Automatic annotation (TrEMBL):
<feature type="region of interest" description="Disordered">
    <location>
        <begin position="1"/>
        <end position="20"/>
    </location>
</feature>
<dbReference type="InterPro" id="IPR015876">
    <property type="entry name" value="Acyl-CoA_DS"/>
</dbReference>
<keyword id="KW-0408">Iron</keyword>
<feature type="transmembrane region" description="Helical">
    <location>
        <begin position="218"/>
        <end position="238"/>
    </location>
</feature>
<feature type="transmembrane region" description="Helical">
    <location>
        <begin position="185"/>
        <end position="206"/>
    </location>
</feature>
<comment type="similarity">
    <text>Belongs to the fatty acid desaturase type 1 family.</text>
</comment>
<keyword id="KW-0276">Fatty acid metabolism</keyword>
<keyword id="KW-0560">Oxidoreductase</keyword>
<protein>
    <submittedName>
        <fullName>Acyl-CoA Delta(11) desaturase-like isoform X1</fullName>
    </submittedName>
</protein>
<keyword id="KW-0472">Membrane</keyword>
<dbReference type="GO" id="GO:0006636">
    <property type="term" value="P:unsaturated fatty acid biosynthetic process"/>
</dbReference>
<feature type="domain" description="Fatty acid desaturase">
    <location>
        <begin position="67"/>
        <end position="272"/>
    </location>
</feature>
<keyword id="KW-0444">Lipid biosynthesis</keyword>
<keyword id="KW-1133">Transmembrane helix</keyword>
<feature type="transmembrane region" description="Helical">
    <location>
        <begin position="38"/>
        <end position="58"/>
    </location>
</feature>
<feature type="transmembrane region" description="Helical">
    <location>
        <begin position="287"/>
        <end position="304"/>
    </location>
</feature>
<keyword id="KW-0479">Metal-binding</keyword>
């Protein structure tokens, strides 16, 4: 495991300086009055998905086989780690490096989640960290729970997101052949991995009807979405701030549980390059870290970046709210 690299800090500080020179400075929390331009296609799609998921809950409780439920829970875990270990910690923050076999594995795992392509995900998340909780943040939590949770996907992007998004450095992502493949074949590949196969397999192997298999596939997909959405919403609104009391992100243990370690959000926004996204490292609420550690042991993951104990302690004493690493 490599220690914190000063180059990461230098790049971050230079990026902020460049932003201040090119654009007016946005100080969080900030949300100027705006007119919402509804994307009706997304409204209909999400509406259908949630109604289908509700019926899926009924089918899961009445007619679905245990084999199908275990199958979809397994996909739920796979998809979640594809987001947390892949799109988030590896590709957005470059908190560790991965050899090609692990990159391919993570890309496929991420495809089960279908939160747009990894390229789209990384662009939005890099914007989120650079302009957190301002109008240039795609899911600005200053606008409340609903907007930061799902509302931002139902309206056109704020003008500041579009304007400043053009300056985000995505060169490393566009140069990645694994991610270019996912984007090039997004419709057939994501459609097959996320929806078609999880519908056909329970029908063929577990004797489910088409209706049951399809509704459970959509239920699993929608559940995956909301676990990720909670990091954008609840983990910016409710919890403690052991590391920096001046920002909105918080430590939210419930979110960490359902999102496999992503709810230690006050820590993550202070040390976004730490591969653990938490001071605690390996613990019961950070399954993603276990996953990365396993592949580090295997030799497929390497150059894991970590904040030192002295760095964490110093920052907590200087800007924290006095609570401990768990947020108590």
């Amino acid at each position: 495991m490599s220690p914190f690299s000063s180059n990461v800090r230098e790049v971050t500080e230079q990026t902020k300086k460049d932003d201040e020179e090119q654009f007016e400075k946005l100080v969080a929390p900030q949300a100027a009055p705006r007119k919402y331009d509804v994307v009706y296609r997304n409204l209909v799609t999400f509406g259908y998905g949630h109604l289908t998921a509700l019926y899926g809950i009924y089918l899961a409780c009445t007619v679905a086989t245990w084999s199908t439920l275990i199958f979809h829970f397994t996909i739920f875990v796979i998809a979640s780690i594809g987001v947390t270990a892949g799109a988030h910690r590896l590709w957005t923050h470059r908190a560790y490096k991965a050899k090609m076999p692990l990159q391919i594995l993570l890309m496929v795992m991420n495809t089960f989640a279908f939160q747009n392509t990894v390229i789209d995900w990384v662009r939005d998340h890099r914007m989120h960290h650079r302009y957190s909780d301002t109008d240039a943040d795609p899911h600005n939590a200053t606008r409340g729970f609903f907007y930061s949770h799902i509302g931002w996907l139902l309206v056109r992007k704020h003008a500041e997101v579009k304007r400043r998004g053009k300056t985000v450095d995505m060169s490393d992502i566009y140069a990645n052949p694994v991610l270019r493949f996912q984007r090039k074949y997004a419709i057939p590949f994501i459609g097959s991995v996320c929806f078609l196969l999880p519908t056909i397999i329970p029908m063929y192997f577990f004797g489910e009807t088409l209706a049951t298999a399809w509704h459970l596939a959509v239920l699993r997909y929608v559940t995956n979405l909301h676990t990720t959405f909670l990091v954008n919403s609840a983990a910016h609104l409710w919890g403690n701030k052991p590391y920096d009391i001046n920002i909105k992100p918080v430590q939210n243990l419930a979110v960490s549980f359902v999102a496999f370690g992503e709810g230690f959000h006050n820590y993550h926004h202070v040390f976004p390059w730490d591969y653990k996204t938490a001071e605690l490292g390996n613990n019961a609420l950070n399954l993603t870290t276990y996953f990365i550690d396993f592949f580090a042991w295997l030799g497929w993951a390497y150059d894991l970046k970590m904040a030192s104990d002295d760095m964490i302690r110093s920052r907590s004493m200087r800007t924290g709210d006095g609570s401990n690493a768990w947020g108590f």
